[in-house]
Amino acid sequence: MTALSRTPAATHLRPDQVDLSVQLGPLRLHNPILTASGCFASGQEIDRFFDVSALGAVVVKSLTLEPRLGLSTPRMAETPSGMLNAIGLQNPGIDRWMEEDLPWLRQHGVPTIASIAGRSVAEYRVLGERLRGVEGIVAIEANISCPNVEDRDIVFSCREASTRDAIHAVTRVSTVPVFAKLTPDVTDIAAIAEAARAAGAAGVSVINTLLGMAIDVETMRPRLAAVTGGLSGPAIKPVAIRAVHQIHRAMPDLPIIGMGGARTVEDVVEFVLAGATAVAVGTATFTNPLATSELVDDLPRWLAARGLPSLSRLRGAVRL
Amino acid sequence: MTRGSGPSVQGRGKGPVRALCEVLAYRKIGAYHSLTFVAPEMADRARPGHFVSIRVEGSGTLLRRPFSIFSVSRHGPWAGTVEVVFDVVGPGTAWLANRAKHDSVDLVGPLGRAFPLPQQPVSCLLVGGGYGAAPLLYLAQQLRQRSLRVDMIMGAATQERIFNAIEAKRLSATTIFTTEDGTLGTQGRVTDVMDKVMDAGGTGVVYACGPMPMLAEVSRLSAERKVPVQVAVEEAMACGVGVCWTCVVPYRYRGEVHNLRACVDGPVFNGARILWDEVGELHGAGAPPDAELLS
Asked: Is A61 in contact with B245 (Cβ distance < 8 A)?
């Protein structure tokens, strides 16, 4: 395959002739643009700006078994081309969420991926059980990589064995495909992804935020109340592209949801060239609440201008 | 960067919109800066206490900056404008202070929950710290339109940081200024004179905007007298639209504590219900939040 920029547009395409739908493992999505968990709440806030059912899927903010108040403020610090956050998984708990937020998503026809976060393997199993056969949820994303937990030992995706245990606890009870959300803060992310797959994961979501820290030099204190936090935004995109690439090279048929600093159509294409099938947008929504909507609109134009009838033929097509 | 090729105003029939807005005017107000934008949809939907978030540029900046709306005009040749006031405290606000007439700036708004207006004909006390006075002047106009008595206490570290003293005097029955260095009005803090003003004015409701420690004290003094108090808080926010959960305020409601988002549940809250001792930057482990990202 020749480089895209040098390919003469063999056939002129109109944007409406581009097929944006993607096959993400067992899931058929009408386009590849997803929301990154924790960056879109449960959809209603952004629905004030555009119809969020137009997205490929909404991945909701992580749900825990019990309600969580989260951490103290400041929870956020802006860093060069990125931001640190330490929210501490604030959420109403899975039961209240299913009562209060899920009905809205269902009524509005929003393909919903439920993100779940447990403190133990047993909790992952219970969370998976709570979601069994629940209408409106098309997949589960098991967040086994939140950096803002009191105990680094429960960052399950730091190790292969704990990844396998946590993911297996969900896949053995789940009635929908399970994606494992992984941290980039490991030596060999492909090995972790392989452990998730062995435990029955339909695919992986990469990457969660990187653990970071910033210090105010005047006060000599950390800029986050929690001291450390997760780094996101354009600053981490090269790390994310690398992680997607490594996993795709190791397991070319494993579905990957790519994320980490994606903002523009070119970023989305870059994730796909590295091996992602779908791309989740996180911090970009903070800068522009319409970021995901604009990507859904702009992606077919970008592809049509290059004579490409779909995005899927670019998957993993990086020329090495 | 690929730019969204949609229309220059994006949003739905009601609620906030995102728009590329032309700068109609830049001016200095004392130590502060003011920008007026042509933004008809936002002007139509704005009320006192609402804010807009502005996309800034400058080295490494990523996030929007939130600014209270200072004034709104719904009429005239530009069909609708909104004005914000700010202080230069970082690269984003420095960039903003360099905007000139006809420049185009990316705004989202109006955002947040506005000040609730009194249902009864009560006497209103407005307490502002620094340029936190800006949204209170907008509020004072609306209270005056309802023929309500308005008293004001405006405080700052020093005279030049008192925001728009002339406008404050014009809009209120009595105006007390306090400065920590005594260069204008009473030397001290706004809360030093609150009791006296509330006695004299028969205050039935208190509205406040300014630094969090000031709001804590204003809320305490009001609650002691069982006077309703509405405060517009400042908390560092990343998104301004309710999805990042960074700007939370600990709030007691129906016997439970909730971390409510300043951007959608506030920035205006019942000050008597905020758990001031739990507010992060008052006593937390962290440094004060980014001044630029404060609501």
From this structure: yes
